[in-house]
Amino acid sequence: MLTVIMECRNQEPELAQTLAGLVVGAVEGLVSDVIVLDHGSSDGSSRVADAAGCRFHADWDMKDIVRSARGEWILLIEPGSRLHGRWIEEIHEYIALNKRPARFTVARPYRMPFYKRIVRSSPPLEQGFLLTKDQALTIAKSGTDLGTLARGHKPKQLLTEMIPSWVARRGRSLAGA
Questions:
Q1: CA distance readout (Å), 143 to 50, 60, 88, 135, 139
Q2: Could you give the CA distance from residue 170 to residue 131 in angstroms, rounded to a whole number?
Q3: How far apart are CA 42 and CA 11, in angstroms?
């Protein structure tokens, strides 16, 4: 089973988008719980998380959060990210056969041009990050953020595609313009 953990700050629409995509994973028995770590949101992020049945924390210690995860694997993603295609089957297969951390592949229509990919420093969770609970526990400390849990590994690149969170942010900014 899999625990999904996200950090957010005033990302209500992006959070709703990601949680909606995870519902099928919960129905299929892959996603056991979702934890949302808030950084002082003043929007409806807490209401969205509550309506989706997530655990919402405005104050937390990362070691306690990881320890409380119900799943033996943890998926770290950004609000607005969406897994694409046959992600449930592919993650089931991967976690059954592997112990190595993994990242997803950016969905083809949302890949940046080659030059931008090589000169740009991408955020640590842009492609999500999948690791075992035990691996996360060895890294997690007080004051640790999710990006820190994802750094310093040599993850396997999965074929499962992820639509990165910047797509949802760009859509929101274009809608507001």
A1: 24, 9, 31, 17, 11
A2: 28
A3: 10
